[in-house]
Specification:
This protein is an all-alpha fold. 54% of the residues lie in helices and 0% in strands. Bound molecules: fe (ii) ion (FE2) (2 copies). One fe (ii) ion binds next to helix 9.
């Protein structure tokens, strides 16, 4: 329970024996109040509030002063539910007449929370990079036409879906009560990351004599109008975007060394993978928290994962390796080493799909929903077919 700044704390009143008008001033603080009020100043806010923390020392050698280091100095509890519609960040003292500024949809902790949002946010801030200066663009050299065209096809696909990966979580940021500011700030960092991914793949498409190619036929109809962007629940969006969509892209980025033809491309995939791992971790940790704190929603979550698996397989969840997506052929040309080696490349693309499924199963298991793979709930046959053809 917090105390407002305008009210003296019970212990202060007892100790001072004074009212707020200063008529019975007995100590220096009350004398100051009387002095100020006589001259038209309002200094009530100087009264020490009970919510003041301990100012605990932080270990600055572990990456500086981190948000999570201050948890002990911030005794404001994270509420299980919030009726705060005024934009008041958690821990600040309420002002009864503050206007409502947001009719936030996400006002229940379990709907948005994860145990390490502050850590993921701090990592995001510390690992920002620049597509202008951190990519060794000078290592781009002229490539055979089929390889360059495949690079451009994949880069076109990626620059489009990176827009989705920023746009969709972006819609939710202003829907979250600021009581839960840590996941909110993480999502803001994700939008910045995705803007950088959008720009780095655009730059790759344009920087080496190629150019942007025809857009992915599925991106417009299925991704935007389909399940990810029309999710009505934050966890539904997160499961489909963070775990399924971005998870499938993360696997591809992690295999980027296999399809890169120079150090610039290797660095693009390496840095983008580092960001995507963070986005996927957010989704896994949030799903884990929700599953543990709201077991009554587990069946609902399984239904989201049913859809997420179908998206992985059919490519509607932004998966460039799905057979139905033209980018799959571009991947095979890059992996094989040319259009005349596309058959060989398809074998490597198959290995990529197998790894996608394996990593997806691992993530869902870590999130606490692994029973779907044991109980036949998962689209197991479809996943097996996807990973074998
Ligand atoms: Fe991304
Ligand atoms: Fe991402």
């Amino acid at each position: 329970m917090t105390t407002t700044a305008s009210e003296p704390t019970a212990s202060e009143s007892a100790a001072n024996g004074a009212g707020s008008n200063g008529a019975q001033a007995t100590g220096p603080f009350d004398e100051l109040m009387s002095f100020a009020q006589e001259r038209g100043y309002k200094l009530d806010w100087l009264r020490k509030a009970e919510i003041w923390g301990s100012g605990e020392e932080s270990d600055l050698s572990r990456g500086g002063l981190l948000l999570q280091d201050l948890a002990g100095s911030d005794p404001a509890e994270v509420p299980a539910e919030s009726d705060n519609l005024t934009g008041r960040p958690r821990g600040t003292q309420p002002r009864p007449v503050a206007p409502r500024v947001g009719n936030y949809r996400v006002r229940t902790k379990a709907d948005i929370w994860l145990r390490n949002a502050a850590e993921l946010y701090e990592e995001a801030v510390q690992r920002q990079w620049s597509s202008a200066t951190d990519i060794p663009w000078h290592t781009l050299t002229e490539l055979p036409d089929d390889i360059e065209a495949a690079e451009c096809k994949l880069a076109t696909f990626l620059t489009e879906i990176e827009f989705v990966a920023g746009d969709v979580p972006g819609r939710w940021i202003s829907e979250i009560t600021p009581e839960y500011f840590e996941p909110r700030m993480f999502l803001i960092s994700q939008v910045v990351d995705e803007a950088r991914h959008l720009d780095v793949f655009r730059k790759r498409a344009l920087a080496n004599g190629g150019g942007l190619m025809e857009r992915n036929p599925r991106a417009g109809s299925d991704v935007f109008a389909g399940t990810i962007d029309s999710a009505r629940d934050f966890t539904e969006m997160s499961a489909k975007l963070h775990i399924s969509g971005e998870g499938s892209v993360l696997t591809i980025f992690r295999m980027g060394e296999r399809m890169a033809y120079n150090d610039a491309e290797k660095m693009i995939y390496r840095l983008a993978a580092s960001d995507e791992a963070r986005h996927v971790a957010f989704g896994v940790m949030h799903l884990q928290y929700l599953g543990q704190t709201m077991p009554e929603r587990r069946e609902e979550i399984h239904s989201y994962l049913d859809e997420a698996e179908r998206g992985l397989i059919t490519g509607t969840n932004q998966n460039p390796a799905a057979n139905a997506n033209p980018s799959n052929a571009a991947l095979a040309i890059l992996l094989g080493g040319g259009k005349d080696k596309i058959e060989e490349g398809q074998k490597l693309a198959l290995a990529m799909r197998q790894r996608q499924v394996k990593e997806y199963v691992q993530r869902v298991t870590v999130a606490g929903f692994g029973e779907r793979f044991e109980e036949g709930r998962s689209a197991g046959e479809m996943l097996r077919a996807y990973a074998s053809a």
